[in-house]
Structures are given as structure tokens and as C-alpha cells.
Amino acid sequence: MAYYRLYFFHPARGRIDHFREFEAANDMAAIVRAGDWRDLAAMELWSGGRKVKHWEAYAFVPEARARSAVSALRGVAAARPEGNRARA
């Protein structure tokens, strides 16, 4: 069994907010277990001085995610040939 530490980062400050310590049989088992504790904030899994995995933070503002989706759809519509566009 190996010792692991999962760090949770504060969303606004970007610094470590808290951590969890646990043991796992190997890196893959530790990644699966850490995934069960997944949060909206960024996380890093370490074993001793070795970084095993980093998870990026999720978008916190639903409006930003919606604006991104609308922009992507506009880009797809603009890329379509004129003949394939829906007629009004």
C-alpha cells in the first residue's frame, strides 16, 4: 500500500484549501478513489514528492458556460456552406 495526499484548491485564491490523506494499492486505485471526492475546484493527487494527477477546476459560472456554447454554435453555423443553412 502506498500513501497518497489529495489537495483541494480554493477556487478564488488558487491556493490549497484542504487535503485528504489515504492509502491505496497503486496509482490507478488512488486516482479512482480521488475521483469519488471530486469537487468543483482544482485538485492534485500526490504520493510523496511525486505528482500523480491534476484535475482542472470546473467552470463556476453557468452563464459563462452558456455563452461559450452559444459562441461555439455560432462558429458552426458560420462555417456551414450557404446552401446548407435553414431558410427563414
A few lines on this structure:
With 88 residues, the chain is α+β, with helices and mostly antiparallel strands.
General description of the model:
By secondary structure, the protein is of the alpha+beta class. It starts with a strand and ends in a 9-residue tail after the last helix. It has one domain. The protein has two helices and four strands. The protein has a four-stranded antiparallel beta sheet, with helices on one face. It has helices at 27-36, 62-79; strands at 2-9, 16-24, 43-47, 50-55. The mean pLDDT is 81. Helices cover 32% and strands 32% of the residues.
Q: Give the distance, in angstroms, between the N- and C-terminal Cα atoms.
A: 64 Å
Which class best fits the helix and strand makeup?
A: alpha+beta
The poorly predicted ranges are: none
Count of helix runs: 2
- Order of secondary-structure elements: EEHEEH
Q: Could you estimate the helical fraction of the residues in percent?
A: 25-40%
